[in-house]
Amino acid sequence: MKYYTRHFINNQFLESHDGGQFDILAPATNETIGHAASGKPADIDAAVRAARMAFDSGVWSKMPVELRSRKIRHIGDLIIKHADEIAELEIIDTGIPRKQITGSAIPRAAENFYFFAEQLKLLEGKSFKGDGWHNYVTYRPVGVAGLITPWNTPFMLETWKVAPALASGNCVVLKPAEWSPLSADKLAQIFQEADLPAGVFNLVHGFGESAGAPLVAHPDVQLISFTGETTTGMEIIRNGASTLKRFSMELGGKSPAIIFPDTDIDRALDGITWQIFSLNGERCTANSRLLLHRNIFDRFVEKLKERVAGIKVGNPDDISTEIGPLIHPEHWQRVRRYIDIARNEGAEIALGGDRPPGFEKGNYFAPTLILNVKNEMRIAQEEVFGPVLAVIPFESEEEAIRLANDVKYGLAGYIWTNDSARAHRLAEALECGMVWINSHNVRDLRLPFGGSKYSGIGREGGRWSFEEFYFDTKSIQIPTGEHHIPKIGV
Ligand code: NAD
Predict the structure, then answer these.
(1) Which structural domain range is residue 270 located in?
(2) Do residues 350 and 367 make contact, with C-beta atoms less than 8 angstroms apart?
(3) 3-state secondary structure of 245
């Protein structure tokens, strides 16, 4: 057994109170490659108490901004220093192809710390001139932040929350996903090497019900930033109601890519295939619905078939692999079930739809193209979270907008056209949190990230992480002279 991950509480690696563990599986083989400590309420309570003590002591929350910013930056440096090892863990633990992990996910994780270290120094409070009054706005850290993350690009998504939570002076308890604990363990090692004050960063491994739920319900936790499925988000909001948590919810998606005939067809093909088939299709912002104008439908679908058939499925370790195995056998079954659902609804599985030939072991799933799809079908409405693309024709701009919005999710939208007025019209009309025009998802960390409708609540990223979530906003008013005070009881 190669790996053993433990909780990280008060700068110490600890077993679970009850000694509980769970298996760590490698998606490429489904062999057990290690064990993780399985957190329960007692472990969560220990982590929250450590975070609370650190926060109340002021050792972190009241640290001078310049110094705290330097320490956050240093975490980014340590991620770069350990990048190769993090990449190896992420590949074996998640099945994401090597090229996609080393090319973007790990550098972005370091960037998250560099960005929020800078952003902290740029934080400014507005002031409002009043007649005889000075009114201004300040920000203060809230307390203990509970961060709950999923298994798709886990290291990047964990750092996406940990960096702004710590930069703003909060102390954190991270509960990473149970299907991908390895790189989170490395993050804890990095924090140990960084030697931040004890209790500032804590991590508890474990399942949603036994470790996530007690974190959400804990009365000493003020903030919950959650990324995961919409139904889990709903459950978390219910569980956090009695302790009045502040929530940031980054949830599921069923994002459309809309392709008009006037676009550069080859670039559109590059963009939309990347945005559904990279990261094994396990990405929240995947363009899993392709809305294709009738005039180019046949031509585009022919090219698409050729492209999808050419995608190289393989061992995630291999640098030439473009799609690796899905995260877990249960997730494989879920993706596979959607193929039956689509077929039963009358859609045509034009390519893929099952285990690719030659891959007997592991959670490999062939890149899948589904035609004859109607927008009301479940395959067009529900999040599959795998390498599965559903194609739907449209005839007019109005119809494209109607189809794009006729779904409960609203995370992202991708518009492919060379008519800039139309691009802006559509961007306005789409009911979603983020739009890319003539592009796949390219993130600028200064912009707000998040979804509308069932895709989330709130925005993180840029100044929004701080002003809308990780800081408490306070207004302060002071008269600059002797203003009138009404008298009572005189
Ligand atoms: P999930 O909801 O099953 O689990 C996410 C996390 O929540 C895990 O750590 C899990 O242990 C924990 N959890 C589960 N039940 C809980 C409970 N009752 N209380 C507290 N915590 C609980 O999601 P997943 O399968 O790990 O991830 C895939 C989902 O994440 C997809 O729906 C995807 O779209 C979404 N996602 C969204 C974004 C975004 O930014 N909008 C980004 C990545 C992934």
Answers:
(1) 256-437
(2) no
(3) coil
Q: Are 72 and 240 in contact (CB under 8 A)?
A: no
Residues 247-286: tens digit of each pLDDT = 999 999 999 999 999 999 999 999 999 999 999 999 999 9
Reduce the DSSP state of residue 451 to 3 states and report it.
Answer: coil
Instruction: Please indicate, yes or no, if residue 432 is contained in any of the structural domains.
Output: yes
Answer yes or no: is the C-beta of 100 below 6 A from any ligand 1 atom. Answer: no
Interhelix angle for 106-122 vs 154-167, to 10°?
Answer: 10
pLDDT above 90 covers a percentage of the chain that reads: 98
Would you call 250 a catalytic residue per the annotation?
A: yes
Q: Is the CB of 383 under 6 A from ligand 1?
A: yes
**How do residues 182-223 score in pLDDT, each as one tens digit?**
999 999 999 999 999 999 999 999 999 999 999 999 999 999
Structural domains in the chain (count): 2
Task: Locate the ligand 1 atom nearest the alpha carbon of residue 250 and give its number.
Answer: 41
Q: Which residues contact 103 (CB under 8 A, 6 or more apart)?
A: none
Return d(Cα 250, Cα 234) in angstroms, integer: 11
Claim to verify: residue 140 and residue 246 sit in the same structural domain:
yes
